[in-house]
Write a structure and sequence with these properties.
By secondary structure, the protein is an alpha+beta fold. It is 36% helix and 18% strand. It has seven helices and seven strands. The protein has helices at residues 13-33, 41-49, 59-68, 135-140, 159-164, 168-182, 193-200; strands spanning 5-12, 83-90, 94-99, 104-108, 117-118, 122-125, 155-158. The strands form two sheets. Strands 1-2-3-4 form a four-stranded antiparallel beta sheet. Strands 5-6-7 form a three-stranded antiparallel beta sheet. A hairpin with a 3-residue loop joins strand 2 and strand 3. It is globular and about 45 Å long. The two termini are 33 Å apart. Keywords: Membrane, Transmembrane, Transmembrane helix. The chain crosses the membrane at residues 31-49.
């Protein structure tokens, strides 16, 4: 079980690149491995180590994520000026994101993948949904033509929180596994009343 814990997250354009890179990086690496041209070998190796992410071609994804986390007037601001701060609270059923505008969202453990992805600034637990529909289209930033690329619902654990709580990542993984096993990987058996009530108690932004 996860020990109740809260921490603050500040996300700016560099952090959003890290988030998107963590979400699509494994697929892009697989595509880049197939690049056979000798001219592209050096570039391919560099990209496999750190896949490139273009925020400009994912503006709608960035705007959606920032609005969800309480940011205002995001469409009018340049990408390098975008940022937001929110608070994450871990609990028995999942995690809560509390935004600066007073809204909050409860996200159950069962919606996450139990294999974390290490980013530049911390650890990401990604949403267990169909992202990454096409490696090529992910590379150029328009994979929305195939599948949803939204990253809302991703749990970010900053390096500072991991350092202060050495067992935190493993306890989150255990909570996700336990929840998914209990609810048959999110299929079939309906969540219990306590979980339903917890999900519903979050305050929506008007």
């Amino acid at each position: 079980m996860v020990t109740p814990l809260s921490y603050d997250v500040h996300m700016d354009s560099a952090g959003l690149k890290d988030l998107l890179r963590s979400s699509v990086g494994s697929l892009m690496r697989r595509w880049l491995v197939l690049v056979g041209d000798v001219i592209l070998v050096v570039l391919g190796i560099a990209c496999m180590r750190r896949p490139p992410v273009m925020l400009s071609t994912r503006r709608s994804v960035v705007d959606e994520w920032l609005r969800y986390h309480g940011a205002r007037d995001v469409s009018a601001a340049p990408l390098n000026e975008l940022s937001c701060t929110y608070r994450v609270t871990l609990s028995e059923h999942g995690f809560t994101e509390s935004m600066a505008d007073g809204s909050s969202r409860n996200v159950p453990w069962l919606t996450l993948k139990d294999k974390p992805v290490r980013g530049d600034d911390g650890i990401y637990f990604l949403r267990d949904g169909g992202l990454n529909g096409s490696a090529l289209y992910n590379f150029i930033g328009i994979n929305w033509a195939f599948r949803d690329e939204g990253v809302v619902g991703t749990l970010f654990v900053p390096t500072s929180a991991v350092g202060a709580n050495p067992d935190l990542v493993q306890s989150i993984r255990a909570a996700i596994r336990e929840s998914r096993a209990k609810y048959r990987n999110g299929k079939g058996e309906a969540p219990d009343p306590a979980l339903r009530a917890w999900v519903a108690e979050a305050t929506s932004r008007e």
